[in-house]
Amino acid sequence: MEIGVTLQSILLWTKLPSIGKSIMSYVKSVLKWVLCGVEVGESVICTIALLSFTLLVFVQVINRYLVHLEIRWLSDLALYIFIFFIFIAAAVTTWREGHVAIDFLRERVMRDKPTLATIYRAFLVVLSVAILSVLLPLAYQFMLRAMKYPEYGTLGFNTSWLQMSLFFAMALVLLHLLIIARRDITEVIRDLRHRSREE
User: Fold this and answer.
1) Model-level pTM greater than 0.90?
2) d(CA 154, CA 55)
3) 41, 50, 63, 128: most buried, per Cβ within 10 A?
4) Roughly how many angstroms between the first and final C-alpha of the chain, as a whole number?
C-alpha cells in the first residue's frame, strides 16, 4: 500500500511541470485575450468619439451660418468628447507604437548597429515607464480631488469625469508601455546572448 502511494506521488510530481506549463499557457492566452479586448475597446471608443466630435462640430458650424445662433451646450459637448478622445487616443497610439520619438539618433547613428539600436529603443521605453510612474500618482490625486469636488458645466452634468478619465488613460498608456518594455528588454537580452555566442 505504501509503495502504491509513493508511486502515485512520484507520478504526480513528474506531471507537475506539464500541469504548470498548461496552466501558464492558459493564463497567457487569457491575458492576451483581455489585452486584445482592451485594444479593441480603445479603438472603438476612439472611433465613436472622433465621429461624434466631427458630427457635433459640423452641426454647430451649419447652425451658426444658417440660423446665426450658437448652441452653447453643443460646443461644450464637442469639447468634452474631444478631450476624452485625446486621452484614449494616447493609449491607442502607445500600443501601436505610433508616438513621436526621437528617431534621428537611432536611424542615423545606430543604423549599422542593430544591438545598440535595440538597447536605445528599450531605454526610451523604460524611461517613458519611469516618467509615467512618477506622473500616475499625481493623476490619481487629481482624480480623487475631482471625485470629491464635482464641477458642473453648461450641460448640467458633472464634468469631473474628464479629470477622472485622465488617470485611466494614463494607466492604459502605462499598461501598453510595460508590455512594450517587456518585449524590448527580451529582445535586448536575446541580441546580447546571440552576440556573445558569435564571439
Assistant:
1) no
2) 20
3) 128
4) 57
